[in-house]
Specification:
Elements lengths: L4 H22 L8 H18 L4 H32 L2 H10 L7 H37 L10 H33 L5 H20 L2 H7 L4
Helix pairs in contact: 1-6, 1-7, 2-6, 3-5, 4-5, 5-6, 6-7
Length: 225
């Protein structure tokens, strides 16, 4: 049997933690909102302010910066996927490193499955980054379509459309980031099921703290009133 019950338990913990924190961040309780949800409201406020801001060069620069961020992560994720595929084609090299580190020997299938789990998370992240990049482009077009005259009947409805596209793009980008974090946690499986469990718990705790118990969240909630 290539995998022990502890391996299966660690893998279930990894997948469960990834799915749970994603659901919790996107569906927080009304009493304790996540940073992602708080930022969604700031994005909607941003688009309302954009209607009366002249010129709108600042707004264009912000969207361009967000597109550059998604491009950077998509590119680096693609490089990581390429490295993982190369390693998947030659698992004996990884097995040799594991033996050098006194991690014991295992069939090539074991290493292939462990690498494949990492690649699945990275592939998910890549797709999310690419879609976020596309949506930020849609957002830029919608922003450009907002009339310069705030008295125009279509000004605020179009700004609202741009805001919702921006919110959707940010949601996709955040999903990509979470998949990247859990890809790093999955890499701990190379050392064994216990390191995988520890990596998963640490990743989950880090994401939860950043979304629900961080200083940045406190600052975002402080409206100054």
């Amino acid at each position: 049997m290539p995998f022990s019950p502890l391996d299966y338990a660690a893998l279930l913990l990894l997948l469960g933690a990834w799915l749970w924190i994603g659901w919790r961040v996107e569906n927080p309780s009304p009493q304790k909102s996540s940073v992602s949800k708080i930022m969604d409201e700031y994005r909607r406020d941003w688009m309302k302010e954009m209607v009366t801001r002249q010129p709108r060069m600042f707004d264009a620069q912000v969207v361009a910066a967000m597109r550059q961020g998604s491009t950077f992560f998509a590119s680096t994720t693609m490089i990581a996927i390429g490295g993982g595929l190369a390693l998947l084609g030659n698992p004996q090299r990884l097995a040799g490193v594991a033996e050098d580190l006194a991690l014991g020997s295992a069939p090539a299938l074991v290493w292939e499955v462990k690498i494949l789990i990492i690649l699945l998370f990275l592939a998910n992240a890549f797709l999310k980054y690419v879609w976020a990049h596309r949506l930020f482009g849609y957002c830029a077009v919608l922003m450009a379509a907002v009339p310069n005259d705030p008295e125009e009947a279509s000004a605020y409805p179009r700004a609202s459309q741009a805001a919702e596209i921006c919110v959707t793009a940010a949601r996709s980008f955040n999903r990509g980031l979470r998949a990247t974090y859990f890809a790093l946690a999955a890499a701990a499986w190379i050392l064994g099921p216990i390191p995988l469990m520890l990596g998963t718990v640490i990743t989950l705790a880090m994401l939860y703290r950043r979304e629900f118990a961080s200083l940045s969240r406190t600052i975002l909630l402080n409206t100054g009133s």
